[in-house]
């Protein structure tokens, strides 16, 4: 039998040879589904319960967010990691070697941000930095993106707007709420058949591709923001630098000279979407030095309590909140109140 990698290569070659048009869309959709299944076999070892997706092999998650650094050995990734962690960390610069990674911690705006460079851990990151050599970025960019996509990671994308519900009977019920340039009922049916799904409701709420549909059926995709870090800008002209600044999701730096680190950190902060909450003990000033940091979307008072201690919510009576999330300062709120960045909170216990 052929190895999984050989089968993947064979399908990829066939896809590359196939002209893309209406007539072949159906066939390409099927090939893509086969490819996705093979890739899943690669990252999920046989006989295991899905240990290969990176969640099992886990560096202890410390800090408020985790950033993965990905890049080829020669691009200055280690220099960037040790210089970032060295400048912005309470710990002395780590010895970064490419194989044994001690995760570094960057302290920024009161948050502890863990940095690491294990590709297999990329799925567990809140942000991925792809470090590229400014002199040959595109080849590396393609290869790395391809590799990450193989791990089920989607960069700078929202999950597809597709409703998918398996049923016991009733066949495939296909609806599209807007015009589709790639998928039709027949293609959708045959992609689902590839997964042995013959009864399901599928609703396409935006113009979707075969890849989008496969992502939804596979169901194990993670959607992670990504910044392309173009290193070695000391080797290019000002004109070239101006062009790079216009490319979305891209920050030019020099790891060696420590140029533009502040820009990179500010952009990382933007993409991480963290919310800082300051605590105020009764009768004292708020502690602005060590905020409790919560991910955007999970910033209710209850989330705050859970982050401090899992039993705190049992003793919770109400809270006083100062800041942009309340109409008047302070405001008495319950556990469902959603807080905003740099709010101040005082808990009142039963």
From TrEMBL:
Entry keywords, A to Z: GTP-binding, Nucleotide-binding
Stretches assigned to the OBG-type G domain: 65-273
SUPFAM superfamilies, alphabetized: P-loop containing nucleoside triphosphate hydrolases, TGS-like
InterPro entries: Beta-grasp_dom_sf (IPR012675), DRG (IPR045001), G_OBG (IPR031167), GTP-bd (IPR006073), GTP-binding_2 (IPR031662), P-loop_NTPase (IPR027417), Small_GTP-bd (IPR005225), TGS (IPR004095)
CDD domains, per database record: DRG, TGS_DRG1
Residues covered by the TGS domain: 273-349
Keyword Nucleotide-binding: yes
GO function terms (MF aspect): GTP binding; GTPase activity
Gene3D superfamilies referenced in this protein's UniProt entry, alphabetically: 3.10.20.30, 6.10.140.1070
The keyword RNA-binding belongs to this UniProt entry's keyword annotation: no
PROSITE patterns with a match to the protein in the record: G_OBG (PS51710), TGS (PS51880)
Pfam families named in the record: MMR_HSR1, MMR_HSR1_Xtn, TGS
NCBIfam families, per database record: small_GTP
Full protein name: Developmentally regulated GTP binding protein 1
